[in-house]
């Protein structure tokens, strides 16, 4: 059974020439820097700005989008077509909808490839303005497959000041460049913590994102502070951009959504 060749029958037009959907990819050198949180933050801010938005959770082994959005219902099926769960107006698709939380995903390359293909071709994304893709950390098989399917993906490197200083993010950015993924900018996360005294505390160091951006000749698109409400919102499926729109983090995500 060929999956690509019968493209006529498939609902997805994201890859069609002339499609208005912009595809924004979020990558990182390693896990834990807040790549998924940034994906959700930017997607939420775009949605709040009135755009139609989808999130593709391509971090297959470390999926966290369903939890962060509080999306629990699996996609419904109409024939072969998957209808993506919608939360906060955002359409989502994730491996997480198909496996139990405590079950490890041990898919090999071909199966991964096929799952991603279905997420792109068999999901009724519709004519959305933005598809935000939470990429796996590093530059592995999944990213390679996606680059094939989504040649117009615009990639943003998410880093912490510390990660940037240690050049972990740089390695992955250079790998992405080798794969000819268009790199659009750097987003620094966990940039600082604002104390009750209103002072900025540079917990993970300072200026890492800026120097990474300079060495990659990319713009620094934004700096996201550490905020407890962001972590809490992620844990209970209530993204901070909706839960506390006046917070410093939300204001920064809204600004990023405007310039991105
Ligand atoms: P990644 O996708 O890079 O593995 P996550 O987005 O899952 O990282 O973030 C890892 C953890 O750090 C999560 O618990 C998340 O809530 C928390 N986190 C990420 N960014 C921030 C931030 N700016 N402030 C507070 N907590 C954050």
TrEMBL record:
Coiled-coil segments on the chain, per record: none
Enumerate the residues binding ATP: 29-36
GO molecular function per UniProt: 4 iron, 4 sulfur cluster binding; ATP binding; ATP hydrolysis activity; ATP-dependent FeS chaperone activity; metal ion binding
Which superkingdom, per the lineage? Bacteria
Q: Name one GO biological process term.
A: iron-sulfur cluster assembly
Keywords (alphabetical) are: ATP-binding, Hydrolase, Iron, Iron-sulfur, Metal-binding, Nucleotide-binding
Which function does this protein serve?
Binds and transfers iron-sulfur (Fe-S) clusters to target apoproteins. Can hydrolyze ATP.
Q: How does it assemble?
A: Homodimer.
Spell out the family assignment given in the record's similarity comment.
Answer: Belongs to the Mrp/NBP35 ATP-binding proteins family.
The protein here is known as: Iron-sulfur cluster carrier protein
Q: What species was this sequence derived from?
A: Acidithrix ferrooxidans
Q: Which residues of the full protein are shown?
A: 92 to 351 of 367
């Amino acid at each position: 059974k060929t999956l690509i060749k019968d493209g006529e029958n498939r609902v997805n037009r994201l890859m069609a020439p002339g499609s208005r959907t912009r595809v924004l990819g979020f990558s990182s050198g390693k896990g834990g820097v807040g790549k998924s949180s940034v994906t959700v933050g930017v997607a939420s801010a775009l949605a709040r700005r009135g755009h139609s938005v989808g999130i593709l959770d391509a971090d297959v082994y470390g999926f966290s989008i369903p939890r962060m959005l509080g999306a629990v219902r699996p996609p419904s099926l109409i024939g072969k077509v998957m209808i993506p769960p919608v939360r906060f107006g955002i359409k989502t698709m994730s491996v997480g909808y198909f496996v139990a939380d405590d079950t490890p995903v041990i898919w090999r390359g071909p199966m991964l490839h096929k799952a991603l293909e279905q997420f792109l071709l068999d999901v009724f994304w519709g004519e959305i303005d933005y598809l935000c893709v939470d990429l796996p950390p590093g530059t592995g098989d999944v990213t390679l497959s996606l680059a094939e399917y989504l040649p117009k993906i615009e990639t943003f490197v998410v880093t912490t000041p510390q990660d940037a200083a240690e050049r972990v993010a740089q390695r992955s950015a250079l790998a992405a460049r080798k794969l000819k993924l268009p790199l659009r900018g750097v987003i620094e996360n966990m940039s600082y913590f604002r104390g009750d005294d209103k002072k900025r505390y540079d917990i993970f160091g300072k200026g890492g994102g800026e120097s990474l951006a300079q060495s990659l000749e990319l713009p620094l698109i934004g700096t996201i502070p550490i905020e407890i409400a962001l972590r809490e919102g992620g844990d209970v499926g209530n993204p901070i951009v909706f839960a506390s729109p006046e917070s410093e983090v939300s204001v920064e995500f809204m600004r990023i959504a405007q310039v991105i």
